[in-house]
Amino acid sequence: MDPRPDNRSEIRDFLASRRAKITPEQVGLPTSGRRRVPGLRREEVAVLAGVSTEWYSRLEKGHISGVSEDVLAAVAQALRLDEDERTYLFDLAKAARPARRTPPRRKDVEVPPRVQWMLDSMTMSSAFVRNGRMDVVAHNALARAVHAPMFDSDTTDKRGRANIARFHFLDPGARHFFVDWDAAAHATVALLRAEAGREPNDRALRELIGELSTLSSEFRTQWAAHDVRIRHDGIKRLRHPEVGDLELTYHSLDLPLPNRAVHDLTIYAAEPGSPSEEALRLLASWAATQDPSRRTPRESSRD
């Protein structure tokens, strides 16, 4: 018996959602008459990918097991998938193949002390490590100070760990903390969607997605869009309760850990000489000397 979860609905909905985003004009196909569906028809995708309409229709119904990588690449090109979407499609195909043995359950991996030392050495950058489920599994003092509303939120788990997705969608204060809440929430859902493709047997991940889908209509809507993101970087604007507005540049890197686990190291920094850098200096000074659960940076600055 193949213990892998049936992912045909994810395949079907992902391919249909990508097809709906492309117009015939974008791919040089003629248009005539009224179209009953947005975007391309199945037969048009089939022509672009060099396969039969019957074959592509079967693929879009979720029957992806056994499809060659060359054909998948042709479909990805026809649908104009970006690099992250292409990776996600290949992950879905991999998950659909019959397993020769029971897939191992993914276990949480403890962050080695050397990683925490590395984080602690970054005194003017907010840095944290998260797993694919968006749990913050390690952080430095400045990350704790910068993201204080998330770490102090009731959405933390029994171990006191913050979860970025839970904070975004289940804590009303997140809409105030994240100036660009919509963009941040979209990126969070897209990262979870990519993780679900990579780790279809992660029970804890499925439970998290189920929890968010049950409790947040915004999450349900964005999850249904099937958008995918694997790498992320850019500008994050925060409205900090103690130092006011922050505009920080952030970048994320893969952080390989023991047992082939790969977590994500995210670093936030401010532009030199900017007001945000001054605010980070205040937070860094406070975080280095005070228990953040007992005193605020404003109180510390008055000493």
Q: Measured on Cα atoms, how large is the radius of gyration?
A: 22 Å
Q: What ranges have pLDDT less than 50 throughout 5 or more consecutive residues?
A: 292-303
- What is the helix/strand order? HHHHHHEEHHHHHHHEEEHH
Mean pLDDT: 87
β-strand amount: 5-15%
Distance between the termini: 67 Å
Write the layout of secondary structure elements.
Layout: H1 8-20, H2 42-49, H3 53-60, H4 69-78, H5 83-96, H6 113-121, E1 126-130, E2 136-139, H7 141-146, H8 148-151, H9 164-170, H10 174-177, H11 181-198, H12 203-215, H13 217-224, E3 233-240, E4 244-256, E5 262-269, H14 275-289, H15 297-301
Antiparallel strand pairs: 1-2, 1-5, 3-4, 4-5
What does this structure look like?
The chain is α+β, with helices and mostly antiparallel strands. It has 15 helices and five strands. The chain has helices at residues 8-20, 42-49, 53-60, 69-78, 83-96, 113-121, 141-146, 148-151, 164-170, 174-177, 181-198, 203-215, 217-224, 275-289, 297-301; strands spanning 126-130, 136-139, 233-240, 244-256, 262-269. A five-stranded antiparallel sheet has the order 2-1-5-4-3. A hairpin with a 5-residue loop joins strand 1 (126-130) and strand 2 (136-139). Helix 1 runs antiparallel to helix 5, helix 2 (42-49) packs across helix 4 and helix 12 crosses helix 13. The chain is elongated and about 65 Å long. The relative contact order is 0.12.
